[in-house]
Structure to design on (451 residues):
């Protein structure tokens, strides 16, 4: 018998044997599963701690269920900022409410005629305002060098006693920067009380102490530091909140990013007073930050 | 006779000689005067011309009392100021002069607190009237300002 015939015969024999073995295995019935013995109700076991790495392997023989329609993730509604009331009535006055004492930016600027019934009381900054701000109808009562100690004695306040104003602005602080916030507000409060007694229906507005230029703060032994000025203004805001007065922030607009008076507005001779454009900006801020009944509904 | 004529001639010549000693004052024109002051006197402050509506408020005067008012003020850091009023008439000029003096007196009182230098400039300030003109000049360098004023008044 040749090799080829022998090889073919062996292959055929192997296939026959495989076939026979397979049939034999199929014919052997599976052994019956043992009937489980009846057991008591299982004791509930504590919930297993879910494994963080559980993966689900789908059964390939399971008939796939209907594909659920993709539901759109609802777009989260923007959380509305709580609306804070800016002003409320207190008798005849319009006083600060939840928003705080800082006069907010108004929707519409006030016409210049709004300031026909405005009065401004204070130091030489008020003199500068009178000369250069362009709001000629504001009654300006001032005294060079006036402080919270001297204002009630040095400034001629007869118009405050004899006339009627709707808004009274107070500008003090630049001559007494180093006295500290407690002393400052204690005496400022006396001025507010006096004005309020004379003008019970006028809105009282404290104007922020204005900054100074950088080189002024670098003079030896000077009390003109940004820290001192900022402290006074912070204390003034707090005083206004407690006294139902308003606070007009002009300092922020007049200063650079570090808080120094912008050279653009500064009188170079002393770095504290302002050129005409500084007072003009002050007036512009007043035109867009003012107190009237409209603030109750804005 | 000859001696009498000679005496008369000498007296007449002497009189004519002394008549020229007073010096001729410059013709006064408000803006030119102010320009000369700003250029020639050493003002410390930054002076700018005031808007017209502010002037009667500042000086507490009646607008009817003057036909023109040119006022230059500083930044309020100093009391430096220049004002020239052209009065409506002689009586108005007197009222303007009184108001100008009152303003300077008030400034002296106010700026005393700023120190002796400020007070000094105010003490030597010029408040004067020349015909229908009323003039106020307050300058830290009162000497240089005074010399310019003397050319006119």
């Amino acid at each position: 018998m040749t090799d080829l015939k022998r090889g073919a015969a062996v292959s055929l024999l192997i296939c026959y044997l495989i076939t026979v073995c397979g049939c034999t295995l199929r014919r052997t019935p599976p052994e019956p599963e043992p009937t489980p013995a009846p057991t008591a109700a299982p004791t509930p076991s504590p919930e297993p701690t879910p494994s963080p790495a559980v993966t689900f392997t789908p059964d390939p023989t399971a008939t796939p269920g209907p594909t659920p329609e993709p539901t759109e993730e609802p777009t989260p509604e923007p959380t509305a900022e709580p609306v804070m009331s800016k002003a409320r009535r207190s008798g005849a006055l319009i006083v600060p409410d939840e928003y705080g004492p800082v006069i907010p930016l108004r929707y519409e600027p006030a016409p210049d005629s709004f300031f026909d019934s405005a009065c401004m009381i204070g130091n030489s900054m008020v003199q500068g305002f009178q000369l250069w701000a362009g709001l000629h109808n504001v009654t300006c009562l001032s005294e060079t060098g006036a402080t919270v100690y001297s204002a009630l004695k040095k400034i001629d306040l007869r118009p405050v006693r004899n006339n009627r104003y709707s808004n009274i602005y107070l500008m003090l602080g630049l001559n007494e920067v180093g006295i500290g916030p407690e002393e400052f507000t204690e005496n400022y409060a006396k001025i507010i009380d006096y004005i309020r007694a004379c003008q019970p229906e006028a809105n009282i507005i404290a104007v922020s102490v204005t900054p100074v230029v950088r080189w002024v703060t670098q003079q030896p032994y000077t009390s003109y530091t940004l820290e001192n000025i900022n402290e006074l203004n912070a204390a003034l805001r707090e005083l206004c909140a407690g006294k139902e007065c308003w606070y007009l922030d002009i300092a922020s607009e007049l200063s650079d990013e570090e808080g120094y008076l912008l050279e653009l507005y500064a009188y170079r001779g002393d770095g504290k007073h302002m050129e005409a454009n500084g007072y003009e900006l002050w007036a512009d801020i007043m035109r867009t930050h003012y107190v009237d009944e409209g603030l109750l509904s804005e | 006779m000859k001696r009498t004529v000679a005496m008369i001639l000498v007296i007449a010549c002497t009189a004519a000689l002394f008549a020229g000693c007073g010096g001729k004052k410059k013709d006064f024109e408000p803006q030119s005067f102010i320009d000369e002051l700003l250029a020639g006197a050493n003002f410390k402050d930054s002076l700018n011309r005031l808007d017209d509506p502010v002037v009667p408020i500042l000086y507490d005067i009646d607008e009817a009392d003057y036909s023109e008012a040119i006022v230059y003020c500083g930044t309020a850091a100093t009391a430096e100021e220049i004002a020239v009023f052209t009065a409506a008439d002689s009586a108005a000029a007197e009222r303007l002069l009184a108001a100008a003096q009152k303003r300077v007196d008030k400034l002296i009182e106010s700026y005393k607190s700023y120190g002796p230098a400020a007070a000094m400039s105010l003490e030597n300030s010029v408040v004067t009237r020349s015909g229908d003109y009323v003039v106020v000049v307050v300058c830290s360098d009162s000497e240089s300002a005074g010399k310019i004023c003397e050319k006119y008044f």
Summary: The helical segments of chain B are 2-19, 30-40, 54-59, 90-111, 116-123, 142-150. Chain B has a mean pLDDT of 87. Chain B has one domain: 26-150.
